[in-house]
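Researcher: Go.
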Amino acid sequence: MQVKILKGTNQIGGVFTEISSKEAQIIIDFGDDLDDLKRLETINGLTIGAPAYDGVFITHNHQDHMGRIDDILDGVPVYMSDLSRKIYETVFCFSKNKGKIHRQTINLEEGKPVTIKDMRITPYIVDHSAYNSFMLLIEAEGKKILHTGDFRNHGYKGTLLVNTLKKIGKIDLLITEGTTFSRGQLKSKTEQELVYDIAQKTKKYDQVLMLMSTTNIDRVTTMQKVANITGKTVIHDIVLSNVLQLVTQKIPNALNSKKVGVYLPGNVYIKKDNEEYKKYIEPFQERINKTGELLHGKFIMNIRVSMLNDIERLKESVLNNCCVVYSMWEGYQKEEIYKKFLDRIKELNIDIYNLHVSGHADYTAFNQIIEITNPNAVIPMHTENKEKIKDFTDKAVILEDMETFEF
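Model: Structure:
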């Protein structure tokens, strides 16, 4: 078998991997670069020319793993969870950058293998900051490859990791993300520990605005737990309200609890009569109408950088004892849109707290995955410090982009 990291041996995000057997050839993930400064070169058989790949497998719905899905040739099948697709399309319907996925996809389900010629690919649910994330087990020629995608062991589903790895057993090759290699993250705080950090920092405020990823459902749970501890009402923006209807009814939301509000940002309100947006707004209209009252009490609400104008207006009326919790990767703060947002928040005399736990594996998770699967070789990717893998194993294989490993 052959493995080639087409992109991702020296960067985080914008990654994809080629795996080939005697009969089949697949790609795992096909995403945008995080900084949006570099663009992917065209790839013969994948984006141009005659289709040469038997399938592309998407591990989860983050843009740096699936953002270029529409560039794939029509003749190349794309496998991804239908739920992940719906979440992606719902979130990016409200974004300037992306919208509906135009190409067809084939549903990928947890524990159900896909057979392509002499290759079998089985997805397994893994803990990550994107809901319904998969790691993939690839079997062919009597060999087993585990591609981790993005994973961790410190979220609310963290115990899944060990149970899944024991089910998979020994493997021949591990292809692992190494996002935290450059951060020296020996052991991450858990989501539950984050709950208490946020509650402690924000209990003195009447209004808490959480700048967070809309697809990070663990963080939504954390927000609800903070509200329970600090006695605040939960308000979800219209995008998160829709995402929650797709993923779970276990978290209180606007359609299963009268205690949860729905905020309609101004940039969405002006589109409320547009047919494309009606389906997202009309189910929540009653709760939207009543949220005005909730805004005059103590609340915690998720926000996005596109809501800056809303925050400015609310500051003139209801935000009299407010803070912002920045609960995302700190690297985004270097981007102009985030810098502008946070600078303006400071000008409004709103306190800002950086309180976050990573969606990626810490060193304890790397030790677990290597110890349990006992791979004969380990290839790091999705990292800016690939040499760090040698701290965990003496079977490291260090590749450059487009370099082939054959075993």
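Model: The chain has two domains: 2-184+359-406, 191-354.
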